[in-house]
Design a protein that fits this description.
single chain; four-stranded antiparallel sheet; 8 strands; alpha+beta; Beta-lactamase Inhibitory Protein, Chain:B, domain 1; 2 domains; disordered C terminus
Length: 170
């Protein structure tokens, strides 16, 4: 192989690795240092999918990720706009914090936006569905009243996993 072709292949391989690394870095905030600004976060991760006020004039930015939102990262910033911490919130431990009586906004601050919302007008509620990465084909559901309060929450079977069978099992 001639020298010019070898140099081009090395440059192409280097560019490909850089693009792959950039793609991975933009999925998760793992590469953001403590103290990074909200602008730094949005440059690295894209536009936030939610913005929430925190105590002490802090701010939380939501970044929903993955197919059907199976990961959601919450990044917390202090009053000066510096990154303090981040967490992937679609987890059983976080689901356990959702209890009856919480407001719709309190759920959003903890969990971010749901992957889907199912209105149930007859019962005067909406069911928020959170898909999350697990091996059990389940999703987390939160029933929200018309008054904007959690009525109940829990893990349920994901209907996408029934293999096309009807409810009778045939």
């Amino acid at each position: 192989m001639d020298m010019k072709r070898q140099q081009r292949l090395v440059r192409l391989a280097t560019l490909t690795m850089a693009l792959v690394a950039a793609g991975c870095a933009s999925y998760s905030p793992a590469g953001l240092p403590v103290g990074a600004s909200t602008d730094d976060a949005e440059r690295a991760l894209g536009a936030a999918t939610g913005r929430y006020a925190l105590p002490d004039s802090g701010r939380r930015l939501e970044f929903a990720r993955g197919p059907a939102g199976k990961h959601t990262f919450m990044l917390d910033f202090d009053a000066q706009g510096g990154l303090v911490s981040w967490e992937q919130v679609l987890t059983p431990a976080r689901f356990a914090t959702i209890e009856p009586g919480l407001t719709e906004n309190e759920v959003l601050v903890r969990m971010g936006h749901p992957a889907s919302i199912l209105p149930i007008p007859r019962q005067k509620l909406r069911v928020w569905n959170y898909q999350y990465f697990n091996n059990d084909c389940t999703w987390f559901q939160v029933s929200i009243s018309d008054e904007g309060r959690v009525l109940q929450a829990g893990v349920s079977a994901d209907p996408k996993c029934d293999g096309g069978r009807d409810r009778s099992g045939t």
